[in-house]
Structure formats: structure tokens, C-alpha cells
TrEMBL record, chain A:
<feature type="transmembrane region" description="Helical">
    <location>
        <begin position="149"/>
        <end position="171"/>
    </location>
</feature>
<feature type="transmembrane region" description="Helical">
    <location>
        <begin position="254"/>
        <end position="277"/>
    </location>
</feature>
<keyword id="KW-1003">Cell membrane</keyword>
<dbReference type="InterPro" id="IPR035906">
    <property type="entry name" value="MetI-like_sf"/>
</dbReference>
<feature type="transmembrane region" description="Helical">
    <location>
        <begin position="191"/>
        <end position="210"/>
    </location>
</feature>
<protein>
    <submittedName>
        <fullName>ABC transporter permease</fullName>
    </submittedName>
</protein>
<dbReference type="Pfam" id="PF00528">
    <property type="entry name" value="BPD_transp_1"/>
</dbReference>
<keyword id="KW-0472">Membrane</keyword>
<dbReference type="InterPro" id="IPR045621">
    <property type="entry name" value="BPD_transp_1_N"/>
</dbReference>
<feature type="transmembrane region" description="Helical">
    <location>
        <begin position="9"/>
        <end position="30"/>
    </location>
</feature>
<dbReference type="InterPro" id="IPR000515">
    <property type="entry name" value="MetI-like"/>
</dbReference>
<feature type="domain" description="ABC transmembrane type-1">
    <location>
        <begin position="110"/>
        <end position="320"/>
    </location>
</feature>
<feature type="transmembrane region" description="Helical">
    <location>
        <begin position="116"/>
        <end position="137"/>
    </location>
</feature>
<feature type="transmembrane region" description="Helical">
    <location>
        <begin position="297"/>
        <end position="323"/>
    </location>
</feature>
<keyword id="KW-0813">Transport</keyword>
<comment type="similarity">
    <text>Belongs to the binding-protein-dependent transport system permease family.</text>
</comment>
<keyword id="KW-1133">Transmembrane helix</keyword>
């Protein structure tokens, strides 16, 4: 088990290295000139060269890449002109825009994604699995058709359309809720909750659809398994058959996808939701940094998000080992 | 979604016994002789009312897109012909009249700001959506099939490498990457020197970019299918007859893969249309004045208090388009893979 | 051929109600391609302490019949008609709640593939204990002790330890033993074993059959064994029912059916089975062709497309007229559905070796 | 001025104003400003919330070059000179300095005397050395992004690399603790207006944190930083060592200023408009744009808290003289452009008045003239006639705009108008954040380029030489501001001549004539003189329309109790 974990983490590290490399070289091919942006108006060529040097952009890509990797492991110091800025390991670089270590910024934004992602995930998992189970049990009946219909709606509707619609209805039209956004829980729990209701709902509508479909089909598959017939043949009540024997087996494939979804959600992949509701999360940070050509932040956000997805993969495998006695982690 | 569930129909009684005396496998106990799988699938689609309606709706959308020039000729307003008389310059070029300027002249009203005819924007925008959706799905399916075939058939290090690449592709936070990659690819392909962004090239860039992140799903599916197929007798038979690899891959395996390929294509189209619209909504997709629904929605989101029609019309239409394509995709899957029936 | 016109066998209903009495059981599944008549008018009886073997190829309706006995078609799309009387209670009309109380307790079942029939995520012990607790108000501890006891009874070594194992940690034979332990945990009056040995090694098969027989003696249950292998039932069954295309084609005591099989299909089954005492060099003769579609059964005798002897019958009778289930002459309850005359059967079976049969086949088949 | 581009909204930047110019507010300007003069005496206490869609690019005073950042900086740092805007016109006054400075040697040497007793937040006194150090910082490549004037004008500035390696700039002298002298390499008659920009302030060497000074600005103003989380929130509290008696411009009415960043601008507008709860004490610095502008400008209920601030800026279309060489064609374009639809694209009448000159009213040197169509909708007959004289060419022209809806709508309006005189326009939208770095690069030349420009201080000297000195094209190949590529020897000579003038009045007249000359060349189509509109909650008082910064000035802000 322990050795398995080590091996999985090593494999994850390799994948992260590959992603890092690809991302690094792709983003340094971005059609922009961060030095020029930093230089401001009326920038003379000599001043531009100095700023390039100061940002480390005058070195070859390979050198920059090596520096970056080194920074990840041992940290690095920035600025040879003024007061030096220390960026502790794992150093993802220093934002061209704000001169703050990227990781600091990411960690500042992280609570928003955590709140948004986890809150929505809990809701759509419970609702989706519930709805999918009902649909599978009532296969072909009205409840099933309603659930399938709802799922199709969620799969087909655009997340920003739903988001804007919710904003329009609940904030502008009926003024039931205050403007959405993220308030730290520690600051104002009520505000935290109120500000996240609509973003959560939006994510839930979209993800609920997937989970309903998934649970339903997984459940139907399980229903056809021999052991389900055995359970009925034992004389177990229908509810026990479905909820204990059925759900226990049907939930297993869902765990994989749920883990990946949670990983990518809290890693900042709810870009559109963040953008519609003005939540300052990692997704919005990424979009803004692309627009500002803030390479270290772009690199940092994508790596941060990828890390969560890769880690989620490992966690899912471990959980799988706990959930499915047939899987041996060795 | 990474798993393709294939629930077995519960109605058919207990599992079939292996019958040593009987050659081959018997499909489902109710095989109807003399019908090709394609014809059976077509029959199932036709018999499924929902899928038939979805197919009709999809064909209608395609027809509208193809006939866009004709339709706009009928109304007299093209997608980039502003009607300055329909907007009020004193209110920030807000449309005159109610419901966003709906009138006999402008069936769906006009865009605030530009005075473009919304109907024309919509029918031309549909072209964009369908073009990007279908082209990227074609591309990603083609790449995915080749990669999946290679990984599944050759196995060994080819499989390891390709599977690893698929894992990495699937691990990428895709939307983030597509957002970031769009300017990169655009820049790499851009040949004109004026430094701006070519709006038609952008369409191609979007197709490429979306396909880059979509092929891994198809590849995974095809790989799994190949792995199970290559153990089957007819491949062994072909191998024994010392058929070439290419022959086995493309003549023996590929024909048996058309069902999963078609399914993944059918499900990729609405997914890609959604992605394209989302990118345009975030401002990194189609470049105006090329009409696009996502871009219209993005624009409309700023006016949704004052001019809700501007938001609702493209929003609902985009929903209907994606819904129709999703239903069609489901229908195709059900028809080709009866075990995955909706019920 | 509509359901209503299917001829009813002239069964003799004995004066005292039998323990199990199945009358004209029909199980039909509506599908997109048409109505699948998996079981179409099956009747049989069974007394306590006795064993019935239901034999047939896959798709002959034998497994669907067994599920009907457990009432497992309730709540599905299946259309079930006829009557199933068990200890004086009619099961088909019984509501699900009432049926549920019987399942596992009065009627229980052993399934074909113990690996898929046991839940992979629960321990063997807990699955057995669960079956006990459904019908008995006992504590978890008591149920677990009962599970250990049952495992011991079915011959699982170290049951105290193995009770905590998961099904995949058991070998095939042990799994089936566990399955049997589970089905017997409530001392059922009727035990249905659906291909209990098919998924097992040959050596293990015999052990399991022995176990079933021993336990039957111990518990005094009635047993229905469903199999495609006449060899399995020849040892253990008192009666044999041969099914083809959802219908009965031959029904009698084991001795009668094995010694004097009346239906060419039964002959085929017998000949496709190796005889222990037989000539080593003797070829096994599989029945040619495939089982029929249950949606469109062939007209006339549903076996006629595969029957080598239709030439022995008046031209066209086999393809046009469905043979009734008739009492075999000289027998009390041996029933068979074939147009062949007794003489013809005599001639075919008497002395006619396989070579002759082949010749006959050549003469008549094409 | 510079144009920094903000997330989704309009670009904008710093501005300073002109002393004496009458600001022609006219009928369209003049929102219901609740300036201090209007509303009795301010109450003390309370927290003012600032809601901006994005964080300040910089508030390190030497790096600030946006209107929002500069406006915020004025709460934190004191500059040598400053603007008193409580009167009907902005008035240049001494801020850190006792007066507006003394010019000598033909305006090449400027001397400022500092007030005694101005304190840093730790109680130590602000000295001339602090100011010298502050100005020197801007020369370091780490302290980038600020205006170019110091390095342009100070003797030796072209080779000086900042104070971090221990070197000082000898052209800044501090003969004593309270005197600072600047030696310039050319006469600059309005240098004391330059020194009202945030860069001309002190930084105590001991508290300089280099590139991270943005979040650690050391205060000598009425408020100081309590906490600052980039892109999230900045909290300012009272600076106890600030004294009203030493400051002619600012007041210290609030307990706290809380700036929050990152909400969508439309959401901010909506919040403040609905005026509920905490929004009552909030104000936004980012200008209202698009549809919000349309609806809010006309909303009578917002009248008392709607600030329409005329900016010393111009929104224009540059015609590339390298590519559109025929004067007749350029003149035809001047006539053909329909400014009514153009203004509609930017937000209608609330956005600004139709422009006919490059110098906005309010900028020193503004001269009122109109060389082309008197009807803002254009004069098609005249335009067609000019095209005919040019031989009826059917040119195709590229037009560079930002890829934001406003600009796309603007581009469409231009395209439609020019189509009527046979010119086909190809629209080239450019990523908004890279827009100016793209069009300012001489490698990228378009036939038509959109531009806007806000004066750094309201003087023609920060408009015309920057935008039309053709000799700069070669010097600054990557940040060329001459989007028209006008390189007219007459214009260049005139710029040099005016630069040497020390008589302000004479200078202003000459700039007015220069403006006219440029328009005779039909190098640019002036479109609109810009206004910036902001709103505040109903409990915010003391907001002054800062027509120099084009921001709601908060120096007298208070919360109504």
C-alpha cells in the first residue's frame, strides 16, 4: 500500500514534469512582449532591454526553463537591482504584473475555488446520485423520464446562460439575493453562503445532469448483475437491494469521475462560473493573466490546476482500493 | 466522461450458457435474420420518436445555416449591415421600440450598439457553430481513431506511450489550456504581417484547438474496443493468413469499429459546439464581426437588464441546437449499441 | 401460433395437492422486435424430498422458469401467467411483499456462476448473515455465527476465518459452496439450483452435486436442478423435464427418460454426452443447428428444422402440426411431444447405430 | 498620458490639468456633483468602500501611470505640487512644496522649497533627500511602468540606472533638507505641472521595498496602508502623523478606506445603483461604460451621486500617412465619418461631445475650430466630391481596433461610413491588452488606427509633441505614439519652437495653431472629447470632479452620518 502510493506519486510527478515542460514552452511562445507591457508608454529600446534583463527574459528559453525548475525545488530570488524578492520553494515564479510570488497569489485565490468547488460537488453528487437512482429504479416511468429530461437539459444548456438567467431572476428581478461573489467564510459566513448560492446552483445544474445520467446507467448495469438477483432471491426488501447492494456497486465508477471533477473544480476549472459571477478564483486569475500576458501566472495557474487533477487521480485510485476489495494496491 | 457504460438489458432472463456445440455467438437470442447492423440501426432510429424529432431539428438547423444567404436576402439585412435607423444614438445606440427592436423589418430585433439585424446574426452565427462543431469533431475523431487503433493494435511501448499521452491530455485543465493556447496557435499560423488577428484564421485555430483536447476520449474508446477485438478469431485468422498490418488494421479492425466511432463523433459535436460558444463567450473564441452565438451571448450579457430578448433568443436557440444534437447522439448510440438503451 | 391455441397436456392431477404444482406457466417478454415467449405453457409437480431436473439448451426457457418460481419477474416487463402452487399457496398472484417473505426462506436458489452471483464488495460471511437476518430477528453476532456454521456445513475449512473473506478470495468450488450455504441458511423447503456446476471444474462438479444431495437428505427439501447436461441430473434427479423453445417436449421419471427417451431432441442430448462405460473412440454427436428464435417459433414441431427424423413421419406433418404432449404408452406419467410413431421410434432406437442414424439423416434431411 | 487597458472596460490613464483653462462643461457635462462646496461641512468617521473591477496596476508612486492609481495615490503620498479643485477651475498649488516652484535659466532649472513639518507615517520628517531618492527610483528597470518625463528631461537621465547600486543623479540637488533643485536638459515651462504627477514625491530609503513597494507604499498623506492583498483588497487607515495644517489639498474625514477589486464592473454598477446596505458608502473609480452608461446617465434618481467628469482627453482615428498618401482621400475620410454612430458605439451623448480638434477644451492651448463637416453625421456630398477629385479610387483599408464590443461596434460604424465613398474597410481586432503594444510597434502599420489620449497634465505639451513629433518614430520603434506616422518638417520645427517658449500664453496660441496644421494634413479624425462617468452610494459626500485626473477625487471625501 505504502509502496504503491510512492509509486503512484512518482508517476504523478513525471506527468507533472511533462505538463510543466509543455506548458512552459507553449506559453513562452505567446504572442506578446511582457517586458514592453511592463515598460509602459514611451519606452526606449535601451530601457526595454534593461527591463527584459530584469525579468530574466533575455536569457535563452532553456536557461529560463532550468531556472524555473530549480526554483520549484529550492526557491529563488528575484531582482538584482532593487530590494531582492525571495520566492520560497516551490517557487512558481513572480508575477510580472504584481511582483508577488505566483504561489502566494494562487493560495489567496484558492479558498474561493475550494468553497465553490467543494460546495457544488457535495450538492451535485448527492442530488445526482439520488436522482439517477430514482430514474434507474423507475426506469421508463414518469420519474425516469423527468430525470432523463432534466439531465438532458443540464447537458445541453450553456453554463453562462443559466448563470446569467439566475442572476437576472434572483438578483435583479426579484432581488432575493445580493450580488454574487466570494466572501471568505471566516469573515462573514452568511455572506459567504449567500454569495455562493447562485454559483453553486449553476454548477449543480450542469454537473447534476452528468451525475444523473452516469448513476442511472451505472445503476442499470448493476441491476443486470447476477448478485442483484441473488439479493432479491434472498428475500431482501427492494430498498435494501437498491440502496445497499445496488448503490454500493454502482457508485464505484462514479467515484473516479467525481474525484477528477472535484480535483479540476477546486483547481480552478470553473472558469465560466467564476467569470459570470465575478468570483476571484484561479480560473479568473488564469483568464486575466492570459490577457495580461503575465506568463508566470499563466504557467502557475495551469500547473496548479493540473496538479489537482493529477493528485485527484492518485486519490481516486487509493479510494478505489478501499472501496473495491478486489483491487489490491501493491 | 471516461466510462462507456453498457448496461445489459434486464429482461432477457439469465446469462447465456456457453454452447460448445453451436458455432459463434448468438446475438441476444432474438436475432432477426437478413438485416445488416446498419439497417437495423436505422430502423431503430426511425422508430425512436425522440431521436427522429432530434434528427429533423438538426437537419433544420443545418438547412438554416446553409440557406443563411437566402434567408437574409429575404429579410434584406445581412449579418454585418447595420441599420442605423433602428438604433438611437442618444441612448448609446440602443434599439428603438420594444423587445430589442423587434419589427417586421427585424424579425428578432437588432443588436444594441451596432444596429445589426439579430436574425441575420443568428442564422450566420449558426454556420459558425456548426462549422466549428462538426469540423473539430471530425478532426478529433480521425486523430482519436488512428491513435486508438495504433495503441490497441500494436500494444507494447506504442500503447504505453499513447496511453500516457492520453492520460496527460485528459489531465490537462482543458478550458484553461484552450483559452491560453488560442493566441499561441493563432500566432504560429498567422502569416500576415499586420499583427492583428485574422478572424477567419481564428475559426481554423478554434477547430484545431478544440480537437487537440478532444481526441483522447475517442482514442481511449477505440483502444478499448480494439483490445477486445484483436483477441477475436477473425483477426487471428487474418494474421495466420499473414495479412499485412495495414490490412488487419484498416480492413479487418476498422470496419468493426464504426459503431463506437460514430457514437463518439455524434456525442463530440454538441460538446464541441458548447466549448466553442464558451470560448467566444469568454472573448477568446470567434472574432467579430464574424457572427457567433457565444459572442452574441457575451455581448448580450451586458444588456440583459435593458434588452433581455437579446440574451434570450440566442441563448434558447443555442440550447435547442445542443439539445437536438445531444438527443441525436444518444439516439445514435442507442441504435448502434442496443445494450446501452435508455429504457 | 397464438398462446391460446397451444395444446394442453393431459396431466393427471393427483388427489392430494403436491408440494409444488406448476400449471401452464407462461413467461413472455415484450421487446422491440416482438413478444419473446421464453416459457410457454409449462406444467410440472414436485413432492418434498424429491428432485426434478429441468434440461434444455440455453434459450429453452428453463432458467426463466426457475426465476418465475422465485417470483423474480415481479416488477419487470415480463408477463407471467398460469399458476404456481407451493404448499397450497398460489405464487403468481401473490403480491411482491408476500413473495419476498417466501424468498430465501421457503424457496431459495443457487445460481450458475457463484462469482457473479455473490456481491463482490461484501464479505461472504456478511452476505450469508444478511440472508439469515432478513427472515430471522437475530443480532448481527448470531447471524454471523450462523454463517460460520453454514460454511462449516458445506465443507469450507477454517470457516471462522473465511467468513471474513471476499468472494474473489474463494476458489470456484468454495464459492459455490458458499452460495449453497447462503441458500440453505433459512432451511428452505424448495431449493432451485440453476446450472449449479456449469461454471466449475469437473472434479468439483461431482463434489457439489454430492453436497446438494446430502443436504437435501438432511433438510428434506424439494430440489429443482436446472441444467443443459443430462449427466448432471441422471444421478440426482427423480424426475426429468426436457424443455425446448419454451415448451415441454418430454417429462417423466429419470429412469424413463434416460432409458426410454421418446423425443429426438432428448436423443440428441443423450448422444452429445459421453458415456462413462462407452467406447472411448465413439464420436460424440452434437445436435446440428441452433436453438429457435423465441419470437417466431417454427411452425409445427418447433424442433423440426433440426430434427433428423422428420422423414419418418407423414410428409409435412412435422412442419405443419404441433405435436401434442402425449402419455407414452405403457407408462403412467411419461409424457412426450413427437409425431413419430412408437414403431418408428422403436426402429430408430433399436439397433440403429449412429452410422445408420447418419444415413437416415442423409436420407431425410435435405 | 498613457492608456493602460483595463480588463473589460474602457482604457484610461493619468491626467493632470491645466491651470487656467475654462472647462467647457456645457449642457452635457455637469452631473450633480456633490462637491464639498455644495454640501455643508463634512462629518468625520466611517469607512468609504471603493469598488473597482481590477486592482491598480501600480500604486508605487514612481510606477503609477493610470488615473485610478494616481487618484488613489493622492490619499497616500504628497507630490511637490498639486491641484486644488475646490474652485470653479483647477488651481496649481504647492503640496509638499510651499509654492509652485521657481523657474530659472530659461526654465531649465526648477527649484522647490519643502514645507517644514510634513511627517511620514512613522513621525519622521519628509526631506528633500527623500524626494530626490523617490525621483531617482524611477530610473531603475525594476521600478518600471511610470511616465518618461524624469528620464527625458533631467540632465544625465538617459544613462542613469537608479539608486539601487548606490549611484545618485547629480542633476537633482538638495542643498538643504528643505530645498530641491532640478536641472533640465531643455526648457520646460510647465515643469511645475509635471511635478504634480505622483512620481515627484518622496520615498524614504529605509522603507523602500523595491519592486514590491506597490503594497508597501510609505505614507505622508492623510491615510496609510493597513493591509494590501493584491487583486483582492486594500485597506487604508488614518495616518496619525499627518496634519491638516501642512496640507492645502487634502482632508482626513474618514476612518478607513477599503478598496475591493475583482467584481465585474456591471455588477458593481448595479450594486451602487441599487444603493443597498454597504453600497451606500461605496464609490467606483472605473468609468461606467456601454449600456450601463446609457441607462444610468439618464436616471434622475442617480442625479445627486452621478459624476460626469470631463477628461482632458481625445478619442480619435489616425490615418496612416505612409499608406494613405492622397490628401484628398484623407480629407474625404474626414467628411465621411459619421460621428453620431461612432459616438453611439462608445455610449452615446453621455460619453462625450463631438470633437473637431485634437486638443480638448480644458487643455491649455485648445483652439476652437472645425475644418471639416459642420454636421457631426458627416457630409457625404463633400466626401464624394473629394474622392472624385482623387480619381475615384476604390481602396481597401485596414482598421485596427481592440477586440471588445465597444470597439467592434465602432469599427462597424467606420466601415459603414467609408463604404459609402467606395472605401472597403478590413477590421483588424487586436487583443485589448496587447492593443497598444501592437499598434505602437512600427512593424505593424494599419491604414486606420483607433487611438485615445489623455493629457498627463492639461497642457498641449503632453498631447501634440507626443502624438505628432515624427522624429520619435525612429527613436521609439516599439512604442511609437505617432499612429498617423505624421512626419511633417513644418510640424516638427513648430514643436521645437514652442518647446523653447517660456511665455505660457504665447505657447498656448502656438499650440492651437499647431493643432489646426495637423488637421489640415488630415492625419487624424478627432472623434469625441471624452467624459468619464462614475457613481457613488448615497452616503458618500465630498467627492470632487477631478477633471485633471478624470476621476472622482476623494481628497475631501466623507461619509454622511
Amino acid at each position: 500500500m505504502f509502496r504503491y502510493l510512492i509509486r503512484r506519486l512518482l508517476a504523478a510527478a513525471v506527468i507533472m514534469l511533462v505538463i510543466t515542460t509543455i506548458t512552459f514552452f507553449i506559453f513562452f511562445a505567446l504572442p506578446s512582449n511582457p517586458a514592453l507591457l511592463a515598460c509602459g508608454k514611451t519606452c526606449s529600446p535601451s530601457r526595454l532591454a534593461e527591463i527584459k534583463h530584469s525579468l530574466g527574459l533575455d536569457q535563452s528559453y532553456l536557461t529560463q526553463y532550468w531556472e524555473f525548475l530549480k526554483g520549484l525545488v529550492v526557491g529563488r530570488d528575484y531582482g538584482d537591482q532593487s530590494v531582492r524578492i525571495h520566492c520560497g520553494a516551490p517557487c512558481l515564479g513572480i508575477s510580472f504584473q504584481t511582483d508577488t510570488p505566483v504561489l502566494t497569489t494562487l493560495l489567496q485565490d484558492f479558498p474561493a475555488d475550494l468553497s465553490l468547488g467543494l460546495g457544488a460537488a457535495v450538492a451535485f453528487l448527492i442530488l445526482g446520485v439520488g436522482l439517477g437512482t430514482v430514474a434507474a429504479v423507475r426506469r421508463g416511468r414518469a420519474a425516469d423520464k423527468a430525470a432523463v429530461g432534466l439531465a438532458l437539459f443540464g447537458v445541453s444548456v450553456q453554463i453562462y446562460f443559466i448563470g446569467l438567467l439566475l442572476l437576472y431572476l434572483f438578483v435583479d428581478k426579484f432581488q432575493i439575493l445580493p450580488t454574487s461573489g466570494y466572501t471568505p467564510f471566516t469573515e462573514d459566513p452568511a455572506g459567504w453562503f449567500q454569495g455562493l448560492i447562485l454559483p453553486w446552483s449553476t454548477l449543480v445544474i450542469v454537473y447534476l445532469a452528468m451525475y444523473t445520467r452516469l448513476t442511472r446507467s451505472s445503476m442499470l448495469e448493476v441491476f443486470s448483475e447476477d448478485y442483484m438477483r441473488t439479493a432479491r432471491a434472498k428475500g431482501l426488501p427492494a430498498a435494501t437491494v437498491v440502496l445497499k447492494h445496488g448503490l454500493r456497486a454502482a457508485i464505484t465508477p462514479i467515484i473516479t469521475i467525481f474525484g477528477m471533477d472535484v480535483g479540476s473544480l477546486i483547481g480552478g476549472s470553473a472558469v465560466i462560473t467564476e467569470s459570470v459571477f465575478g468570483i476571484n478564483g484561479i480560473g479568473k486569475l488564469a483568464v486575466d493573466s492570459v490577457q495580461n500576458s503575465d506568463l508566470p501566472v499563466i504557467l502557475g495557474t495551469t500547473l496548479f490546476a493540473a496538479t489537482f487533477v493529477v493528485l485527484a487521480n492518485v486519490v481516486v485510485d487509493l479510494v478505489y482500493g478501499l472501496v473495491d476489495p478486489r483491487v489490491r494496491l501493491a | 466522461m471516461t466510462t462507456q457504460h453498457q448496461p445489459v438489458d434486464t429482461g432477457g432472463g439469465t446469462a447465456l450458457l456457453p454452447e460448445p456445440s453451436i458455432q459463434g455467438s448468438r446475438p441476444g437470442g432474438t436475432a432477426v435474420a437478413g438485416r445488416s447492423p446498419a439497417r437495423m440501426a436505422w430502423r431503430r432510429i426511425r422508430r425512436d420518436k425522440v431521436t427522429t424529432v432530434a434528427l429533423a431539428a438538426t437537419l433544420l438547423f443545418i438547412a438554416i445555416a446553409l440557406l443563411a444567404p437566402v434567408l437574409t436576402a429575404l429579410t434584406g439585412w445581412g449579418p454585418i449591415t447595420p441599420d442605423n435607423k433602428a438604433i438611437n444614438p442618444d441612448t448609446g445606440n440602443f434599439p428603438y421600440g420594444s423587445l430589442g427592436g423587434i419589427s417586421a423589418k427585424h424579425l428578432l430585433g437588432v443588436e444594441p450598439g451596432t444596429g445589426y439585424d439579430l436574425f441575420a446574426r443568428i442564422v450566420y452565427g449558426l454556420r459558425t457553430s456548426l462549422y466549428v462543431g462538426f469540423a473539430s469533431a471530425l478532426l478529433s475523431t480521425a486523430v482519436g481513431v488512428v491513435a486508438g487503433l495504433a495503441a490497441g493494435y500494436f500494444g507494447g511501448w506504442v500503447d504505453s506511450l499513447l496511453s500516457r499521452i492520453m492520460d496527460v491530455m485528459l489531465a490537462f485543465p482543458q478550458l484553461l489550456f484552450i483559452i491560453a493556447l488560442t493566441p499561441v496557435i493563432q500566432n504560429a499560423l498567422q502569416t500576415n504581417s499586420h499583427g492583428g488577428t485574422d478572424e477567419n484564421l481564428r475559426l481554423l485555430v478554434l477547430v484545431l484547438n478544440i480537437a487537440v483536447f478532444a481526441w483522447a476520449y475517442t482514442a481511449r474508446l477505440v483502444r478499448g474496443q480494439v483490445l477486445s477485438l484483436r483477441e477475436r478469431e477473425f483477426v487471428d485468422a487474418a494474421r495466420l493468413m499473414s495479412a499485412g498490418r495495414r490490412h488487419i488494421l484498416f480492413r479487418q479492425l476498422l470496419p468493426n469499429l464504426w459503431a463506437p466511432i460514430l457514437i463518439s463523433f455524434a456525442l463530440a459535436v454538441p460538446q464541441n459546439i458548447t466549448t466553442e460558444a464558451a470560448l467566444s463567450y469568454l472573448g477568446v473564441g470567434v472574432i467579430p464581426p464574424n457572427p457567433d452565438w457565444g459572442a452574441v451571448l457575451s455581448d448580450a450579457s451586458q444588456f440583459f437588464l435593458q434588452d433581455p430578448m437579446y440574451l434570450f433568443v440566442p441563448g434558447v436557440l443555442l440550447f435547442l441546437l445542443v439539445l437536438a444534437l445531444n438527443l441525436l447522439g444518444d439516439g445514435v448510440r442507442d441504435a448502434l449499441d442496443p445494450r446501452a438503451r435508455r429504457g | 401460433m397464438s398462446v391460446s391455441t397451444s395444446p394442453q397436456p393431459a396431466d393427471v392431477t393427483p388427489a392430494p395437492a403436491p408440494f409444488l404444482d406448476v400449471r401452464d406457466l407462461r413467461v413472455h417478454f415484450p421487446t422491440e422486435d416482438g413478444l419473446v415467449k421464453s416459457v410457454d405453457g409449462v406444467s410440472f409437480t414436485l413432492e418434498k424430498g424429491r428432485t426434478l431436473g429441468i434440461v434444455g439448451e440455453s434459450g429453452s426457457g428453463k432458467s426463466v422458469t426457475s426465476l418465475a418460481l422465485l417470483g423474480l419477474h415481479k416488477g419487470t416487463r415480463a408477463q407471467v401467467s398460469g399458476e404456481i402452487w407451493l404448499e397450497g399457496r398460489e405464487l403468481i398472484a401473490l403480491p411482491e411483499a408476500g413473495m419476498r417473505a417466501l424468498r430465501g426462506r421457503t424457496v431459495s436458489m443457487i445460481f450458475q456462476d457463484p462469482l457473479s452471483a455473490l456481491h463482490p464488495f461484501f464479505t461472504v460471511g456478511s452476505q450469508i448473515a444478511e440472508a439469515y437476518r432478513v427472515h430471522h430477528k437475530v443480532s448481527k453476532k448470531e447471524a454471523k455465527d450462523r454463517a460460520v456454521e453454514m460454511l462449516k456445513r458445506v465443507g469450507i475449512p477454517q470457516p471462522e476465518r473465511r467468513v471474513r473473506d471476499y468472494p474473489h478470495q474463494f476458489s470456484g468450488g468454495m464459492r459455490q459452496r458458499a452460495m449453497i450455504a447462503m441458500s440453505l441458511v433459512c432451511d428452505p423447503a424448495l431449493l432451485i439450483a440453476d446450472e449449479p456446476t456449469t461454471a466449475l471444474d469437473v472434479t468439483v462438479q461431482a463434489q457439489i452435486l454430492d453436497l446438494i444431495r446430502d443436504l437435501q437428505e438432511e433438510f428434506g427439501s424439494a430440489v429443482v436442478i436446472i441444467t443443459h447436461d443430462l449427466g448432471v441430473v441422471s444421478d440426482i434427479a427423480d424426475d426429468i423435464l426436457v424443455m425446448y423453445g419454451g415448451r415441454r417436449i418430454e417429462y417423466g421419471t429419470t429412469r424413463e427418460v434416460l432409458k426410454q427417451p421418446q423425443h429426438p431432441y432428448t436423443w440428441g442430448l443423450l448422444q452429445s454426452m459421453p458415456h462413462l462405460g462407452g467406447d472411448v473412440g465413439q464420436r460424440l454427436n452434437p445436435i446440428p443447428g441452433t436453438p429457435p428464435s423465441l419470437i417466431n417459433l417454427p411452425d409445427g414441431c418447433s424442433f423440426h428444422p433440426r430434427c433428423a427424423y422428420k422423414g419418418w413421419v407423414t410428409e409435412g406433418r412435422c412442419t405443419a402440426e404441433r405435436p401434442e404432449l402425449r402419455l407414452v404408452s405403457g407408462s403412467e406419467r411419461h409424457l412426450a411431444a413427437c409425431h413419430l410413431s412408437d414403431d418408428a421410434k422403436q426402429e430408430i432406437r433399436g439397433g440403429a447405430g449412429p452410422d445408420d442414424r447418419d444415413a437416415a439423416a442423409a436420407r431425410t434431411a435435405r | 498620458m498613457t492608456r493602460t487597458t483595463r480588463t473589460t472596460r474602457r482604457s484610461r490613464t493619468v491626467a493632470l490639468t491645466a491651470t487656467a483653462v475654462v472647462i467647457a462643461l456645457g449642457a452635457t457635462a455637469c452631473g450633480g456633483s456633490s462637491g464639498n462646496s455644495a454640501g455643508g461641512s463634512p462629518s468625520k468617521g466611517g469607512t468609504l468602500t471603493i469598488l473597482d473591477d481590477a486592482d491598480f496596476n501600480h500604486i508605487d508612486p514612481q510606477r503609477t501611470y493610470t488615473t485610478e492609481g494616481s487618484s488613489m495615490d493622492y490619499e497616500l503620498v504628497r507630490t511637490l505640487t498639486g491641484w486644488d479643485e475646490t474652485g470653479s477651475q483647477p488651481k496649481l498649488v504647492g503640496d509638499l512644496a510651499t509654492d509652485t516652484g521657481t523657474a530659472s535659466k530659461g526654465a531649465t532649472v526648477w527649484t522647490f522649497h519643502l514645507r517644514h513639518g510634513v511627517k511620514w507615517q512613522d513621525g519622521s520628517e519628509v526631506t528633500a533627500q527623500d524626494v530626490k531618492y523617490g525621483v531617482e527610483r524611477a530610473f531603475s528597470p525594476d521600478i518600471n511602468g511610470g511616465p518618461p518625463y524624469a528620464s527625458q528631461w533631467l540632465v544625465g537621465g538617459d544613462s542613469y540606472k537608479g539608486p539601487y547600486q548606490g549611484k545618485q543623479l547629480s542633476s537633482i540637488q538638495t542643498p538643504d533638507k528643505y530645498t530641491i533643485v532640478f536641472h533640465l536638459n531643455q526648457p520646460v515651462a510647465d515643469f511645475n505641472e509635471t511635478t504634480a504627477m505622483t512620481g515627484w514625491s518622496g520615498v524614504p530609503k529605509a522603507h523602500d521595498t523595491g519592486a514590491t513597494y506597490d503594497t508597501h507604499v510609505w505614507s505622508d498623506g492623510p491615510y496609510m496602508i493597513k493591509s494590501y492583498t493584491k487583486n483582492k483588497e486594500m485597506v487604508l487607515v488614518r495616518n496619525k502623523n499627518w496634519s491638516q495644517s501642512s496640507d492645502p489639498i487634502r482632508q482626513q474625514n474618514l476612518n478607513e478606506i477599503d478598496a475591493k477589486f475583482g467584481q465585474d464592473q456591471a455588477a458593481i454598477d448595479q450594486q451602487i445603483k441599487s444603493d443597498g446596505g454597504s453600497a451606500q458608502t461605496a464609490i467606483t473609480q472605473t468609468p461606467i461604460a456601454g449600456s450601463d452608461l446609457t441607462t444610468m446617465a439618464g436616471d434622475p434618481s442617480l442625479k445627486s451621486r452621478y459624476y460626469k467628469i470631463p477628461a482632458p482627453g481625445i478619442n480619435y482615428l489616425a490615418i496612416n500617412l505612409n499608406r494613405v498618401k492622397d490628401l484628398k482621400v484623407r480629407q474625404a475620410i474626414e467628411y465621411a465619418i459619421d460621428k453620431t454612430t461612432v459616438r453611439g458605439a462608445f455610449g452615446g451623448s453621455a460619453y462625450g461631445n463631438y470633437a473637431t480638434t485634437m486638443l480638448a477644451p480644458g487643455i491649455d492651448g485648445h483652439k476652437d475650430f472645425n475644418l471639416y463637416s459642420s454636421n457631426p453625421a458627416g457630409d457625404l456630398t463633400k466626401a464624394k466630391a473629394l474622392m472624385k477629385q482623387a480619381g475615384n479610387p476604390k481602396p481597401t483599408m485596414s482598421l485596427a481596433v481592440e477586440n471588445i464590443p465597444t470597439h467592434e461596434h465602432f469599427a462597424d460604424a467606420v466601415k459603414t461610413a467609408l463604404a459609402k465613398i467606395g472605401i472597403t474597410v478590413n477590421i483588424t481586432p487586436i487583443d485589448k491588452n496587447n492593443y497598444f503594444s501592437t499598434v505602437d510597434n512600427v512593424k505593424n502599420q494599419y491604414d486606420l488606427t483607433w487611438g485615445d489620449w489623455i493629457a498627463d497634465w492639461p497642457n498641449a505639451s503632453t498631447v501634440l509633441p507626443t502624438l505628432f513629433d515624427g522624429r520619435q518614430i525612429k527613436k521609439l520603434p516599439q512604442s511609437n505614439n505617432d499612429l498617423a506616422y505624421l512626419n511633417d518638417p513644418k510640424v516638427n520645427a513648430q514643436i521645437d519652437k514652442i518647446g523653447k517658449m517660456t511665455d505660457i500664453k504665447q505657447r498656448n496660441v502656438a499650440y492651437g495653431e499647431l493643432d489646426e496644421q495637423i488637421l489640415k494634413d488630415a492625419a487624424v479624425v478627432p472623434l469625441m472629447y471624452m467624459n468619464f462617468s462614475e457613481v457613488s452610494g448615497s452616503k458618500v459626500g465630498g467627492v470632487i470632479n477631478d477633471s485633471i485626473m478624470a476621476e472622482p477625487s476623494l481628497v475631501h471625501a466623507y461619509i454622511k452620518q
